[in-house]
Design a protein that fits this description.
The complex is a heterodimer of chains A (483) and B (534). With 483 residues, chain A is an alpha+beta fold. Helix content of chain A is 36%, strand content 24%. A seven-stranded mixed β-sheet of chain A has the order 8-12-13-17-16-15-14, sandwiched between helices. A four-stranded antiparallel β-sheet of chain A has the order 1-7-2-6. Chain B is built from 14 helices and 27 strands. The longest helix of chain B is centred in the middle third of the chain and has 17 residues. Classes of the chains: A alpha+beta (483), B alpha+beta (534).
C-alpha cells in the first residue's frame, strides 16, 4: 500500500480495488501505517444536490402565465391543487412581489406583476436537475438551496471520503526497505527461498484483530447428557434395553396396575393413536393374569381394583407416557432371573408446551431384580446413582405410583446449584404387577426426567430451548460434560 | 388443628407423602396423591400428622349413633344409578373455611375415587331444610327445580344442556330416559345426581345439621366415599347419625364406619423393608400411621383408609411409621458387568462421525404438523399416523421422515450465518396394513450458496465407508424431497440405505430458505448379530 501511495495520495475505495484486499484488511493497514507516522489520513466530506420535487410556487406562476397573467384565486387553487401546497405557493408569490390580489366581482383575482417572476428559482431548479456538487453552487443561490432542501424539493446527500497520503517518514521507510515484505507465501517466494537459501520475512499483521467465528460440528446437548447417563448405568452393572415408542395400553397402563378408569389414562394426558389397536392382544396367558390382578387381585392376595377389566382398552395404542412401559417388558423377559437393566428414552405427554412442560421429553429408568432385595438396597442404589450425576445428598419421602409399594419420592442435593430438588420417583413393584409376569423376586425400580437435569446443568429457564434447535444456541452453548 | 409448631409441620408433611407446593404466612399449599382421598381436608392431614409425630397414636374410630331418617329407593334408579348411601351429622359449627374444605373434599372425591362422578357423586345438604323421609327415584327430563346457585326453575333437560356442570357431566346420563332425583316428602329437591344439588338445601357457614347423600354405580366406592366424608364431618365437630336405606332388595344402615381387620403378614413387611420387626415394633410403627395391631395379629384399618388392599400396603405403613429418614441404605453389588445396547451405540458412532464432519446435531419432535410434514414439500401421497385430540395441532402427526424436521430447523435459522450443516438421528413412524411401524433414521442437510448433490454424495460416501466398510453406490431415483434429476437411491451391496439429493426449489420456498440445500436420509440397517462359532 505504501508503494501505491508513493505515486500520490489516493482515497479509500481506490486503495481497496487496487490492492485486491478486503476492506477490513485495508482499514487495518491504514490504522497501522498511520500509527507509525508513515501516512497521513484526512477525511473530506462532499455533498451532492439533486432536484427531487417541483416547488409549488413555480407551478402557480406557470398556471397564471398560461391564463395570460390574470386568473381567479379559485381557478388557480384548482389548477395547482390545495394538497400540493397552493396556499403556501400563493403566499410566497405575494411576498416575493410577483403578483398582486384584486377584489373582483366573483371573488379575488390574482394579477401577475413581475415579468421575471420565478425565473431565478426556475434557473436554479434546472441547474440542480441532474445533480450538482454542493461546492459548485454560487453564493447567491446558497440560501435558496438551503430552503429548498428543508422543503424537500432538493435532496442533499453527503459522502465522506478517506484520503490517504504518504508522509516524509513514509517515503523514507519505502526507500530504506530493500524489498517490500510480502503478505503471504506463494510458490514463487518459496522457490526463491529454496534457491537463494535465505529466509523471507513476512509483513507483520495486526494479531489483535478479531478473526471470523468458526463453529466445529457438535453433538446435541441432550445426546451428550444421555451418553453420560448411559455410562453411569454401565458402571453400575446395568444392561441397556430399548423398546418401541408406540405401545399398547396393556404395557403402558394395565401391566402397571393402572386401572382402566384412572384419570391418567384419559385423553388429556395421553397420546392415543387414532384408529389403531393391537388386535393380537387377547385375554389369555399373561394378559389373563393381568386382568385377574385388576379384577380381584389374582393369586397375589390383593383385593385388586374390583371392576370389570376390558380387553379393548388394553389393545389401544398409545405413545408411551413413561419409560416403565419398556422396563416392565424387560421384567417379563427376565424370567425371574437376577437382572439389572436400564433405559433412556423419549416419552410423550399430551400437554400444552410452556416454560416447564414439553409434549416430548426424555426419561431415564433402571430396574433391579434380585433375591432378598428390599427398600434399603433401593436406597443404596439411589444414593450411588445420583452421586455419580453430581448429587451429593439423597432424601426420600413417601409417594405413590399405582405399580409400586412402597413408593418414594427422591429429593437430591445438587452441588452445582446448591439446592435440594425433586428428582423423580422410585419403589418396589407390587405383586399385582410381578405375579402376572411370573416374577417372584423383588423388583426395585427408579426413574427421573433427563431434560430437567440438563436445564439445571445449563442454567436454562425455559425447557423448550432444548428443542428449539436455534443454531446460534447449538453452536455457542456451554459445555456440559461432567456433573 | 394439630397443636404443632409450624416449623415441625412443614418439616414432617413430606413424610406423609404430601408435596409442599408453596407457603405463605397463613397457609401451606400441598398436593396429595390420589390413593389417599382422606387427605382432601385439613382434618385428614392433621389426623395423620398427629400420628406420625407421636401425639396421637393408633386408630381414630368414628361412630354413628342411631338415627331415624329413612331414605326410600325406587326401582327406577336400578339401571341409571342404582346405589345410595347416606348419613347425618348434627351440631356442626361451620365457618367459611370449613365449608370451603368440605366442598373441596367433595370435588376431589368426585374426580378421583368417583371417577369424574361417573362412579360416585356426593351431595351435602342442610338437614333443617329437609322434611323426611327422603326419596331416591327418577324424574323425566321435563321436570324442573331451582338448582344450586340459581334463583329460577330449570328443567333437567335445560340443566344438562345449558349449565356448565350439566354440559360437563351430561354424558354420564346419556341414553337414559329418566334421570335420578333426590327429593323429600314435600317434593323439595335435594339434588339431581350426579349433576347438581338443589338451591333449597344449600349448606353454608350457618348450617348446623348436615345430610350427606352418596349416589353411585359402584356400591363399594360409594360407601368408601361416605366414610371419608363422615370422618371429616365428625372431625369438624359433628355427631354422626345412621340413615336407613330402604331398597327393593331390603333395608341397609349407612354409614358403615366400623374398622376392618386384616391379618398382618410380618414376613412380607420384613422382606420388603429390610427391617427386623418384633410384634411390639410393628404395633408401634402401625400406630403412627393411625392403624393398630391386636394381640391376635390382626391389623385394624379405619373406615377412611380405602387404599390398603394387600400386605405390601401395610409394609409401606410400617416403613412410614418407622421413618424413611431412619433407614440405612445398603448398596448391592452387581453380579454381572453392565452392557450397552449395540444398535444404540452404533447409531451414536455414526452421529460422532457426522459431528466430526462439521455438522450440528439437532433434535426434533416426533409429532409435527401437516404443513411441515406434507404441505411445504408438496407431497402427493402420504399415509398419516395421527394422534387423538392433540392439545396443539402443531404436534398432531407422527413424522415418517426426518427431512421435514431438518428443513424446519433451516427455516428457523435464516438469520444465522451460513453454511449451515445439520443432522439428526431420530425415530420415524410408518402406517402399514398390520399396524404402525417405527425405526431409526439418520438424515443430514447442508445449506449454503454452493450446496449441491456432489457434496451430499461425498459426505454420505465417507459415512458409509467408515461405518459399513463398503463403497457407496448410487443410481437415479425419485423422492418427494429431492429435485428430479438431482436425486439418487443410495445402496451398499444389496442393501438400500436411503436417498440423497438437492432439496426441491418448491420446498425451499415453502420453508423460506434462500440458499440451496443438499443432503441425505438413511434408514439405519439392523446390525446382524455375529454368528456363533460352530
Amino acid at each position: 500500500m505504501l508503494a501505491t501511495l508513493a505515486d500520490g495520495p489516493e482515497n479509500f475505495d481506490v486503495l481497496v480495488s487496487n490492492s485486491g484486499l478486503e476492506p477490513d484488511q485495508v482499514r487495518r493497514s491504514i490504522s497501522w501505517l498511520s500509527s507509525k507516522g508513515l501516512i497521513a489520513v484526512t477525511e473530506t466530506t462532499s455533498a451532492k444536490l439533486v432536484a427531487s420535487g417541483q416547488p409549488a410556487e413555480l407551478v402557480f406562476i406557470e398556471k397564471l402565465q398560461d391564463m395570460g397573467g390574470e386568473a381567479s384565486v379559485a381557478f388557480l387553487r384548482n389548477a395547482v391543487g390545495e394538497d400540493r401546497g397552493f396556499s403556501a405557493a400563493m403566499g410566497r408569490a405575494i411576498s416575493a412581489g410577483w403578483v398582486e390580489i384584486k377584489e373582483g366581482m366573483m371573488g379575488q383575482i390574482v394579477i401577475l406583476k413581475d415579468k421575471e417572476a420565478g425565473k431565478f428559482l426556475q434557473d436554479l431548479m434546472a441547474s440542480v436537475k441532474r445533480g450538482v456538487d454542493e461546492s459548485k453552487i454560487p453564493e447567491s443561490q446558497r440560501s435558496t438551496i438551503a430552503d429548498l432542501v428543508k422543503r424537500g424539493m432538493v435532496t442533499r446527500t453527503e459522502t465522506k471520503t478517506v484520503n490517504v497520503s504518504i508522509t516524509g517518514d513514509g517515503k523514507l521507510a519505502l526507500t530504506s526497505a530493500v524489498d517490500v515484505a510480502p503478505d503471504r507465501l506463494t510458490a514463487e517466494v518459496l522457490a526463491s527461498v529454496r534457491s537463494t537459501g535465505s529466509d523471507v520475512k513476512l509483513r507483520a499483521i495486526d494479531v489483535t484483530a478479531k478473526a471470523p467465528a468458526f463453529y466445529p460440528g457438535r453433538r446435541h446437548p441432550v445426546k451428550e447428557l444421555i451418553a453420560e447417563v448411559r455410562e453411569v448405568y454401565l458402571s453400575m452393572g446395568f444392561a441397556e434395553v430399548t423398546g418401541d415408542a408406540i405401545q399398547p395400553a396393556l404395557w403402558n397402563f394395565d401391566a402397571l396396575f393402572t386401572p382402566q378408569d384412572h384419570p391418567a389414562r384419559e385423553l388429556q394426558d395421553t397420546f392415543y393413536l387414532k384408529d389403531q389397536a393391537d388386535k393380537s392382544i387377547t385375554r389369555t396367558a399373561v394378559v389373563a393374569k393381568i386382568a385377574a390382578a385388576h379384577e380381584f387381585g389374582g393369586d397375589t392376595g390383593s383385593k385388586g381394583w374390583r371392576y370389570n377389566w376390558n380387553v379393548e382398552e388394553a389393545r389401544r395404542l398409545v405413545l408411551r407416557t413413561h419409560n416403565t412401559a419398556v422396563t416392565i417388558q424387560a421384567t417379563r423377559d427376565s424370567k425371574d432371573k437376577e437382572t439389572r437393566v436400564f433405559s433412556v428414552a423419549r416419552v410423550y405427554r399430551n400437554e400444552s408446551l410452556d416454560y416447564k412442560h414439553l409434549a416430548e421429553l426424555h426419561q431415564m429408568e433402571g430396574i433391579v431384580i434380585g433375591e432378598g432385595l428390599n427398600l434399603r438396597h433401593l436406597m443404596g442404589i439411589l444414593t450411588k446413582f445420583y452421586a455419580k450425576l453430581g448429587m451429593s445428598g439423597v432424601k426420600l419421602w413417601p409417594s405413590y405410583f399405582p405399580y409400586t409399594e412402597p413408593s418414594m419420592q427422591v429429593m437430591v442435593y445438587y452441588d452445582k446449584v446448591g439446592k435440594w430438588l425433586e428428582m423423580g420417583g422410585s419403589g418396589i413393584f407390587r405383586p399385582e404387577v410381578t405375579w402376572p409376569l411370573g416374577v417372584k423376586k423383588p423388583v426395585l425400580a427408579w426413574g427421573c426426567g433427563l431434560d430437567r437435569l440438563l436445564m439445571l446443568r445449563m442454567g436454562l429457564e425455559d425447557i423448550r430451548e432444548l428443542y428449539n434447535n436455534d443454531l446460534s444456541w447449538l453452536r455457542e452453548r456451554q459445555e456440559i460434560a461432567g456433573p | 388443628m394439630t397443636g404443632l409448631p409450624r416449623k415441625l409441620i412443614l418439616e414432617r408433611l413430606p413424610y406423609l407423602g404430601l408435596d409442599i407446593e408453596g407457603t405463605d404466612d397463613e397457609s401451606v399449599r400441598i398436593e396429595y396423591n390420589p390413593n389417599r382421598p382422606d387427605f382432601s381436608t385439613d382434618y385428614g392431614i392433621a389426623r395423620a400428622l398427629r400420628g406420625l409425630v407421636g401425639k396421637e397414636r393408633g386408630l381414630k374410630e368414628y361412630k354413628a349413633y342411631a338415627g331415624r331418617l329413612q331414605v326410600h329407593v325406587d326401582k327406577s334408579v336400578a339401571k341409571v344409578r342404582p346405589f345410595i348411601a347416606c348419613a347425618v351429622a348434627r351440631g356442626l359449627k361451620l365457618d367459611e373455611e370449613t365449608v370451603r374444605q368440605l366442598i373441596s373434599m367433595q370435588e376431589d372425591l368426585h374426580n378421583g375415587l368417583g371417577r369424574r362422578r361417573r362412579k360416585v357423586a356426593i351431595g351435602l345438604h342442610n338437614l333443617d331444610s329437609i322434611t323426611p323421609p327422603v326419596y331416591y327415584g327418577t324424574k323425566d327430563p321435563g321436570f324442573a327445580f331451582v338448582p344450586l346457585g340459581s334463583d329460577e326453575h330449570m328443567s333437567l333437560k335445560d340443566i344438562l344442556e345449558k349449565t356448565e356442570t350439566g354440559v360437563a357431566y351430561a354424558k354420564i346420563l346419556a341414553g337414559f330416559e329418566d334421570y335420578p332425583m333426590l327429593t323429600d316428602s314435600k317434593g323439595v329437591v335435594l339434588s339431581f345426581p350426579p349433576i347438581i344439588n338443589g338451591q333449597a338445601t344449600k349448606v353454608d357457614a350457618k348450617t348446623k345439621n348436615v345430610f350427606v347423600d352418596v349416589t353411585s354405580t359402584d356400591a363399594r366406592l360409594g360407601k368408601e366415599a361416605l366414610a371419608i366424608v363422615c370422618a371429616a364431618l365428625a372431625d369438624a365437630g359433628g355427631k354422626l347419625e345412621n340413615v336407613t336405606i330402604n331398597a327393593r332388595k331390603g333395608k341397609e344402615t349407612t354409614p358403615q364406619l366400623a374398622p376392618a381387620k386384616v391379618l398382618f403378614d410380618q414376613k412380607v413387611a420384613e422382606s420388603l423393608t429390610g427391617l427386623t420387626l418384633t410384634k411390639k415394633d410393628a404395633k408401634a410403627y402401625l400406630q403412627r400411621s393411625r392403624l393398630d395391631l391386636d394381640s391376635k395379629g390382626f391389623v385394624t384399618i379405619p373406615c377412611y383408609r380405602v387404599d390398603l388392599i394387600h400386605p405390601v400396603d401395610l409394609a409401606e405403613e410400617i416403613a412410614i411409621g418407622y421413618g424413611l429418614d431412619k433407614f440405612t441404605p445398603m448398596y448391592p453389588a452387581s453380579p454381572e458387568p453392565g452392557q450397552l445396547d449395540p444398535a444404540t451405540s452404533s447409531l451414536e458412532r455414526m452421529c460422532e462421525t457426522m459431528a466430526e464432519a462439521g455438522f450440528n446435531e439437532t433434535m426434533g419432535y416426533d409429532l409435527l404438523d401437516e404443513p411441515t410434514l406434507y404441505g411445504k414439500f408438496v407431497r402427493t401421497t402420504w399415509s398419516k399416523l395421527e394422534v387423538e385430540n392433540p392439545r396443539s395441532m402443531e404436534h398432531s402427526l407422527l413424522r415418517d421422515s426426518l427431512l421435514p424436521s431438518l428443513m424446519a430447523v433451516l427455516s428457523r435459522n435464516t438469520k444465522n450465518t451460513y453454511p449451515q450443516m445439520v443432522f439428526e438421528a431420530g425415530r420415524v413412524f410408518q402406517k402399514e396394513s398390520d399396524g404402525p411401524k417405527e425405526f431409526f433414521m439418520l438424515a443430514a442437510l447442508s445449506a449454503h450458496t454452493a450446496a449441491s448433490f456432489t457434496e451430499a454424495k461425498s459426505h454420505l460416501a465417507a459415512l458409509v465407508k467408515r461405518h459399513f466398510g463398503a463403497e457407496l453406490e448410487t443410481r437415479a431415483a425419485s423422492h418427494w424431497a429431492f429435485s428430479e434429476g438431482r436425486c439418487a437411491l443410495a445402496t451398499v451391496g444389496e442393501i438400500e440405505l436411503g436417498h440423497l439429493g438437492e432439496i426441491t426449489p418448491q420446498a425451499l420456498a415453502g420453508f423460506g430458505v434462500d440458499v440451496p440445500v443438499c443432503g441425505f436420509e438413511l434408514r439405519v440397517p439392523k446390525k446382524k448379530k455375529p454368528e456363533k462359532p460352530a
